[in-house]
Amino acid sequence: MTAHVSPAVFHPSVSPEACPALVLNADYRPLSYYPLSLWSWQDAIKAVFLDRVTIISEYDKVVRSPTFEFRLPSVVCLKTYVKPSRNPAFTRFNVFLRDCFTCQYCGTRNDLTFDHVIPRSRGGQTTWENVVAACSPCNLRKGGAMPAEAGMHPHQKPYAPTLSDLHQNGRHFPPNYLHESWLDYLYWDTELEP
What is the pLDDT of residues 22-70, one digit of tens each? Predict the structure, then answer.
């Protein structure tokens, strides 16, 4: 995937909707990387007025009311630390991220859904340890069969990932849009290569 870094200068006709704010925790790390913690410009301004965040960086884009003018924040930092969750949520996105957005049967990245390795009709549960990313054709081909019956075994045994696992995998799939003011706050905790 390719990330497009947008320059700090905006054309005046750019819509405020194209100006989300990166949200940092009080330790100056994003609240989440995957998906990246972003607020709409309205939510960012509301948080500023409620004194819940500090503006770290701004866009050149200005919004106006009859009595007020405000530069849109591009990076905000919470004033109160929010303790991150210790375990990732069991969501479709996180299953795809754990499996690197790849069908665990054929390796394609197209038309992804998820598959129960042990089918629900055979007592399989919807858990980290029994669900894998699968393309629709492979999912249909496997159907309600057990892996041995279908001759289809996942490339990687499904497992409950840690936040670190998802964080590591997510580095290979940056968001399609990164504003240059965000770059100093993303991936700074990445281990440097010698």
Answer: 999 999 988 887 778 899 999 999 999 999 999 999 999 999 889 889 9
**7 DSSP 8-state letter:** P
* pTM score of the predicted model: 0.65
Q: How far is CA 73 from the centre of its chain?
A: 20
Closest to 99 in 3D by CA, of 113, 87, 89: 113
Measuring CA to CA, which residue among 112, 130, 129, 133 is closest to residue 120?
130
Does 137 sit behind a cis peptide bond, omega within 30 degrees of 0 on the bond before it? Answer: no
Extract the tokens encoding 39. 């607020």
Write out pLDDT tens, residues 127-154.
Answer: 999 999 999 999 999 999 999 999 999 9
